[in-house]
Each structure stands twice: as C-alpha cells, then as structure tokens.
Structure prediction request, 145 residues.
Amino acid sequence: MNFDKETQTRILRVAADRQQGRSIEELDARIAHVMDLHPEFEEVWTLGEMAAYPQEINGQIVSPFVHTILHTIVDSQIRTGQPEFVVETFNRLREQKMEEHEVLHAIIAVYADLHFSSFRQGKQFDQLDYESRLGYLSYEDAEKK
Prediction:
C-alpha cells in the first residue's frame, strides 16, 4: 500500500462498505480488520477526503489514513512472513505477554520512523536497520515507559 490518492479512495470505500454491511474482498478485509481495531476512528471515516488529514482523537493528533496504511503494511508482513524477522519479533513480544495490538503498534512505530525518515532523505528503506531496531524491542522496555 502507498500513501496516495488511490489508497485513500480504497480505504474510504472499505470504511463505507463496512459501515453499510456490504461484502469486502480479502485484502480489503484486512483493512476492515484494522478499522475494527480502531473504533475511535469511526466518525472520521464519514468525513470522506478529510479523513486523510490529521484529526484530534482522544486528545492526540492522529492521521487515521496513515495509521491504517501502516497497520495494513505490518499486518501483511506478518501474514506473509516477509520479512521473516517481523514475524519473529511479533512472536517474541507475544511470548513476553505483550498484547497483540500493542505488539503491532510497537512494530509499526519502528517501521514508520524508518519509512518516513528514508522518504524525507530520498533514500531506500533500510531493511537491515529495520531488522536491527526490531531486535531491540522488548515488552520489558515498553512497560518502563
């Protein structure tokens, strides 16, 4: 998935299909699943194209569009097992008794940081850095924050 108009349109279509109870294709079902994990975004999806802009939700500024894409990217990495180290990190953190949604957000935070810093610098996404950073994640560290 990309951070583009086509993806924005797709996400808004999935949100509308979901809200109106229409059937959803397999990849779109994964997007719908991410939406199910974030009921706090429900109102935002009704805003149409405005949903692409950051919104104040529960006292935080969030872009539901960007958050949904990042969730879907990491979800796909885990489901396909590519890259393998993402699945290993997911399993390791779950074994440490970290809640599944927290694990996803921890991995997403690392992916997003690398993705956006690479993009701003005009560089390729660094898979080795991604693997290295995920290797340092632990539930114990998250509990201290």
